[in-house]
Write a structure and sequence with these properties.
It is built from two helices and three strands, in the order βαβαβ. It has 83 residues and is of the alpha+beta class. It has a three-stranded antiparallel sheet, with helices on one face. It comes from Castellaniella ginsengisoli.
């Protein structure tokens, strides 16, 4: 079997109204995204955390600014393709 893959970056934080807070918002968000993709034929694989290091520019580096590390979350899906 051969597959094609799709990755979707998701927000690292989800904002909710305090009155509507249930404690399961992250799971609900992921469930909605995975089910949306499943309806389009994509099979859920996993969620990964990926760190991206942003290097300072020349001037900022000259003044001692260090690299900034930001983490992103990506959902991976796959779909079978014909040979």
């Amino acid at each position: 079997m051969k597959y094609t893959y799709k990755m979707i970056q998701i927000p690292p934080n989800i904002s909710v109204d305090a009155k509507k807070h249930k404690g399961s918002e992250a799971a609900a968000y992921l469930q909605d995204e995975v089910n949306t993709q499943a309806r389009n034929g994509w099979e859920f694989q996993r969620v990964d955390q990926i760190g991206v290091s942003l290097q300072p520019g020349c001037l900022a580096g000259f003044f001692g600014q260090k690299a900034q590390l930001t983490y992103y979350y990506v959902i991976s899906f796959r779909k079978e393709v014909d040979d």
